[in-house]
Amino acid sequence: MKKTIKYAALIAMTVVMGSCNDWLTEDTPGSNKIEDYFVSTATATEVVNATYAPLSFEYGTSTTFYSEWYIGDIVSDDALKGGQGTTDMGAAYDMENFKTNPDNRLLLGFYNAQWQGIQRCNLAIQQVSMMEVGADAQFTQELKDRLVAEATFMRSYYYFRLVRVFGGMPLIDYVVDSSNKFNFDRATLLETYEFIIKGLENAVEALPLKSKYAAADMGRATRGAAQAMLLKANLYYAGFLAQEGRDATAAYQAAKHWGEELMTSGEYDLVPTYFDNFTLAGENGKESIFEIQYVEDPRSDYGEGEGFSRGTFTLIMQRPRAGFNDSETGWGFNHPTQNLYDEYEEGDLRRDATIMQQEGGEIDEASIYLGNYYYNRKYAQTTDGAGGTWYHLTHHSRGPLNYRLIRYSDALLMYAEACCELGDLTPAITALNRVRDRVGLSPFPYTATIQGQHVVFTSSQADLRRAIRHERRVELAMEGHRWFDLCRWGIAKETMDAYIAGENDEVKAEYGIFQKGKHELMPIPSEERQLANGKLAQNPGY
Q: What does residue 143 show for φ and ψ, rounded to 5 degrees?
């Protein structure tokens, strides 16, 4: 789907009103019913294409940027906000320092984008499901089932994005076409995960394998993407069940099952060179399971609401403000921390593939944030330009690099985690070692220097768990995963407290107090609660 899917605008339809008088039951001349629009393969495809678009939204009517990595990276111990001082994007500063309030505009933008995605999915599911096979020559049962499955997958994915930031959500599986149809009652966090898993289970078999899609359709939901999300959602579900003191065995078994389905499909593998995952040439490659599709569209510009750009802001947001390459500077957000830098073992090639470090004459005052001068290399496109140079960005809203949401290495480590928690250590170790072997590191069990300490990993379940968590951090660093991992493991409080204790004085001076039971979730935006007339319950502590 990269560079080819034209994200269709959803057409608003007039609902024709009726009456008990016969002469009033006729349709108003010139009006349309929504079902009159869904009469061709082109229409069905366009409405499903439109379900993907909010996944790429990063800026709009909330008046601030709201990429998911602002939460996954900078709220965690992996990254500092960056930018031009602490006042640059105050909404992100508040989240980073656990000072967030319900008026946070970043959270409002993120929240709205996911709900727009859910509404688009519900419209696609409802209307495509009602279309008759044979509406035209191309509209077969197989295509109909696939399109409905794509929209069902995407609805689960938007709910997944919401639940891990805000907790349990209202579960809406129908089109909301009037204000009195929206049910504002929030399901519990666990009920929301159950809803997500059910949707993915309903979609998985009707989705094609990645290899069955034409090149022009790369980026659409695949069976592998659904399997990986079933692995992931069940792993999250299991983690929160365990935190509530409930038996998580069945959820871990389900995660393991879907991991095995994915691994035996033959569709995915690790690429030999780690950094190839973060290049234009590596987009939708054999390690890619699901990614946001972006294109450097010259028509992109400000002022057109959500989704006005088909490019990504992540490139300009994360490039250094100065130094390195002064002709290709950026806005300097998402600084990797010293704590993350120190997590890498000696000789781990992923450290320098992830973290750029300014030295000597490169250091410029504008590029330093609270004493930190590291930058994220993964999304800076330092080698995609002519002759392996920095990629030249023609406009800050037009970054072309896809954002990787699920890589095969992520799936391998999730599978290893599920097996470990079930006490099935052999396949867990095999999967873990595949990830380590790619970058030339010793197989588990091993010894290493991590955070300046000599660490010994024995073959016990407890040490395997520690090793998998360490590996997830360094393998997936600066890809938006870390904060959500800490929360599902139930170790956010102790991890963040230990991290801040080792930070420099400038960072400590800005930091708030982490409250366990509150800060694992973000507040429901106050604007949304006002629209719900107070019926949308707020998260505890806000």
A: -65, -40
